[in-house]
Amino acid sequence: MPKVYEIDGIVPVVSPGAFVHPSAVLIGDVIVASKAYIGPAACLRGDFGRIVVEEGANIQDTCMLHGFPGKDTVVGAETTIGHGAVLHGCVVKRGALIGMNAVVNDNAEVGEDAVVAALAFVRAEARIPARSLAAGIPARVLRELSDEELRWKHDNMLLYQQLAERSMKMRQVEALEKPEPNRRRIDIPGALPLSELKRKHG
Fold first, then answer.
1. Beta bridge partners of 88
2. Longest CA–CA separation in the chain, Å
């Protein structure tokens, strides 16, 4: 069971169709919709402002979400929040991708299908337009995304919706002492880094 905490009489809400890893922490005013994936060691602190995770979004391991009273931190439908990202009092709109270890600060808004690159810092009150790529510290809009990039982003999001379903069957076990002969690999067709996809289509 995930670590779910009531505070000031407010209890997190998790749709039965969502997956929340047992090591994730949900506190207070948190609402998680169906098909969402909340990864290991993610922390959603609704002890100040509300945190809303819309349908089919994925929040990957060690992400941190927090905000201010009277305001919502919103993770839009079908968004991807990459490993270690921090969202604070911001809105990430449908289909956007926040890269690994990126930070999106107070009252910022990331538009639909936009990408914030890994390690970027989106300043307070910033506006990242739809279908654009933003990168850097502070983040600047570099260009519009290509159709190939948009397809890859969407396909990657679908893989995380599938992972939410796969993870519901996950079980805790004892580790093996050594690998089995001819150890099987996990095979997920279509799971490919964007850089590798671009190289292939060069």
1. 66
2. 57
Per residue in 77-112, pLDDT (tens digit) is 999 999 999 999 999 999 999 999 999 999 999 999
Residue 168 CA from chain centroid, whole number: 18
Q: How far is CA 71 from CA 33, 51, 99, 121, 164, in A?
A: 18, 9, 23, 21, 28
- Tokens 């402002």 identify what position? 49
Total count of residues recorded for the chain:
202
Instruction: List the strands of the sheet with 140-144, edge to edge.
Output: 19-20, 37-38, 58-59, 80-81, 97-98, 115-116, 132-135, 140-144
- Cα 70 to Cα 47, 67, 89, 197: the distances in Å are 11, 9, 10, 42
